[in-house]
Amino acid sequence: MRSLSTRPRTPLALYALTAGAFGIGTTEFVIMGLLLQVSADLHVSIATAGLLISGYALGVFVGAPLLTAATSRLPHKTALIALMIIFTLGNLASALAPSYVMLMIARVITSLAHGTFFGVGAVVATGLVAEDRKASAISIMFTGLTVATLLGVPAGAWLGLHFGWRSTFWAVSAIGVLATVIIATLVPADRGEHAPMKFVEELKGIAHPQVLLGLLITVLGFAGVFAMFTYIQPILTRVTGFADSAVSPILLVFGGGMVVGNLLGGKLADKHLVMTLLGSLVALAIVLGAMTFALHSKPAMIAFSALFGIVGFATVAPLQLRVLQKATGGQVLASSFNIAAFNLGNAIGAWLGGVVISHGPGLGAVTWAAALLPLLGLAVAVYSVRLDARPSRRMATAACVEVAP
């Protein structure tokens, strides 16, 4: 087996993981561009249609630990292929769903594979590269999510507008088939390095206080992202005044920002993980808060859509790597739990945005409500970093006592 130093800087297997992430990201995010069509066709409110995002996210939250446990003794490549098959079948069920309830069930089935795919994928990705490129490897895999927003979501919104929302899920099913073939072809088979731990032992690794704090930071940070992103279509059309046809191009701008932010966050986290983590949370809160004052300006909202994409996804690689570093054992489970945390944040954000719209000040207040959540995440992150420093201070104090006359 070749040493890490002789491996190519970006192995083809990483791009296979990116392909799977693209398919999963498209089905997760595309519903944001279809809320109005789903709402009208299935005779539910916009806020109720938004719960399809919460349902998916909660399915990831529940499915990540369960499927990770169920697939823990499978080779990583076999697990990835099985998860993509579940994903594809779930999208077929979504395309055929005759009612809102059946669509929700189909979305939950689809979501079950999500957390474990990214959990296993992140471990595979970091194992393909040298130590100083682990955050970048994670960001390359997650580029599939960002490209899904850049290309898949606008394309899905366009399909939904012209051919009905079901056509979008048929297209995503085809993407799932293609991604499965690419993963089967390019991801290398395990070479004996996969030594499964007992599930109880993996859970002990998750119970480390710093891992739990890392998961909480992820929940709060991404709750802020999705409190805004879930309702971006009605905000753009009903508050800012864009035509329905303008949503896809603006989602394209947002997706471009996501790609830039994701890769930038990975590169910065490779150099200084803690500062990247704290700085990205600060930037996210500032952009969300400032967006409140841009809601009634079309040029400003286009610019802020790009900025929102950049700062929102600059957090992904540092959040994922922080949890992986703090997990003393069971990294696949820790990684899966962090994906579950991302999606719990998505669910909380979508729910909070719906509350603000239905029972609070309305669509125009979603941005400032969203800005509060990464600020809470920042407070938890600062506390976590201070905990890191305590052993060092205790060691320094002990050393001073030993050398004192």
Automatic annotation (TrEMBL):
Domain Major facilitator superfamily (MFS) profile: 13-389
Topology of this chain in the membrane: Multi-pass membrane protein
Keywords: Cell membrane, Membrane, Transmembrane, Transmembrane helix
Key word Thylakoid present: no
Gene Ontology MF terms: transmembrane transporter activity
Domain of life: Bacteria
CDD domains linked: MFS_NepI_like
Classification via SUPFAM superfamilies: MFS general substrate transporter
A Pfam cross-reference name: MFS_1
An example Gene Ontology CC term for this record: plasma membrane
Transmembrane intervals: 12-36, 42-67, 79-106, 112-130, 137-161, 167-189, 210-234, 246-266, 273-295, 301-321, 333-353, 365-385
Cellular compartment(s): Cell membrane
Protein name per Swiss-Prot or TrEMBL: Major facilitator superfamily protein
Source organism of this protein record: Rhodanobacter fulvus Jip2
Lineage of the organism: Bacteria, Pseudomonadati, Pseudomonadota, Gammaproteobacteria, Lysobacterales
